[in-house]
Amino acid sequence: MDVRVVLGIDPGYARCGWGVIQANGDKINLVDFGTIQTDNGVTFSTRMREVREHLKTIITTHRPSLAGVEMLCPSAEKHNILNVAQVRGVILLLIDDAQINLHQLPPGEVKRQITGSWIAGKKDIEKAVRDLLNIDPNRREYDDAFDALAVAISAATFDKMRQDKLFI
User: Fold this and answer.
1) Cα–Cα distance list, 89 to 122, 123, 125 (Å)
2) pLDDT of residue 142
3) DSSP secondary-structure letter at 72?
4) How far lies 63's CA from each of 30, 56, 68, 150, in Å?
5) Which residues are tagged catalytic?
6) How far is CA 98 from CA 30, 38, 60, in A?
7) How far is Cα of residue 82 from the mean position of the Cα atoms in its chain?
8) How confident is the model at residue 26 (pLDDT cuts 50, 70, 90)?
9) Cross-strand bridge partners of residue 133
10) At what angle do helices 122-133 and 143-163 cross, to 10 degrees?
11) What digits encode the pLDDT tens for the residues 86-101?
12) Predicted confidence (pLDDT) at residue 150 exceeds the cutoff of 70
């Protein structure tokens, strides 16, 4: 089994979480993670461009062969969902342009894979991700970054299951 670099993204326009892991069989190692924050004092198109440019740099730096992007949650705040959907479209196009294999994952499935519960909270996801990837408990980051790492782990797991023909 070859080592795969996997990018996980928790889409957003004010904050967009991202995480990069290496997956080798059943082993998963942390590479890097963080949050792209945009200024609410600029136009929405500028915010989308900032997210795209930051993610383009992350892709160029880490060269992922697989990306996982969290799908929109229907219960999200209605005034934000359209903007997040637009940013998500920019992200999907960027991934396609970079010719990276893509898995789109529903939030509940990511939660279940990481914590064992479909309804896990943000703190539960952060704790599980910190434990799985041995992240220093003193490292502070927005929950969007931990959500993105959870998406990357779920995408790697889903991809491995497909390679092993456990899931078609």
Assistant:
1) 24, 28, 25
2) 93
3) P
4) 15, 10, 14, 19
5) 10, 70, 144
6) 22, 23, 9
7) 19
8) confident
9) none
10) 60
11) 999 999 999 999 999 9
12) yes
